[in-house]
Design goal:
single chain, signal, alpha+beta, Protein Transport Mog1p, Chain A, 8 strands
Length: 177
């Protein structure tokens, strides 16, 4: 009977250690730490949206993302048609009125809504991303800017928009839960 206790203790420690390793390996990757901030822009014809910031330590670059619905502001039949529309509606002009497209935009799907994404140069140190997606006749405008190159700002922004909390909020804001 005394000989079985060391065996039982060894088995208990081994199983506990394997469980801990399995739990660590199977855990989802830690998400970047985005923090909601106050909507920084003056009031206009649309309701204020939501604003978020992620620092360089968490996201690899300093980046801010601004999202807001614009009900009834989209072509009900065609959605977001072209890059000119992204330039007009994505709210990049609220960050600064001086922005220049870096290249043609791309077709994108965000939270089940089709639209377009485009990168902009704000100055030599900052870049922005403009996203306009639609559901029926409603538009979701997303503007982001960061201190890194456009590809990194785009990657951080899209990763943020894939999060369950933001996808849920966008669906609710567009009233199609």
């Amino acid at each position: 009977m005394m000989r079985s206790w060391p065996v039982i203790a060894a088995m208990f420690l081994a199983l506990g250690g394997l469980s801990a390793v399995a739990g660590y390996e199977m855990a989802p990757p830690r998400a970047a730490q985005w923090h909601e901030i106050a909507w920084p822009f003056p009031r206009d014809g649309w309701p204020a949206g939501r604003a978020f910031r992620c620092g360089a330590a968490e996201c690899g670059i300093d980046v801010e993302v601004y999202l807001r619905p614009k009900p009834g502001f989209c072509n009900c039949d065609g959605g977001v048609a072209d890059d000119d529309e992204v330039d007009r509606v994505s709210d990049v002009d609220m960050i600064t009125p001086r922005f220049a497209p870096l290249k043609a935009g791309d077709v994108i799907d965000v939270a089940g809504m089709p639209g377009r994404i485009r990168a902009y140069d704000l100055d030599r140190n900052r870049t922005a991303i403009g996203i306009a997606v639609s559901h029926r006749c409603d538009l979701m405008a997303v503007a982001a800017y960061g201190s890194g190159e456009a590809a990194k700002v785009r990657q951080a922004t899209l990763k943020f928009l894939e999060g369950r909390e933001i996808r849920t909020w966008m669906a609710a804001a567009m009233e199609w839960r």
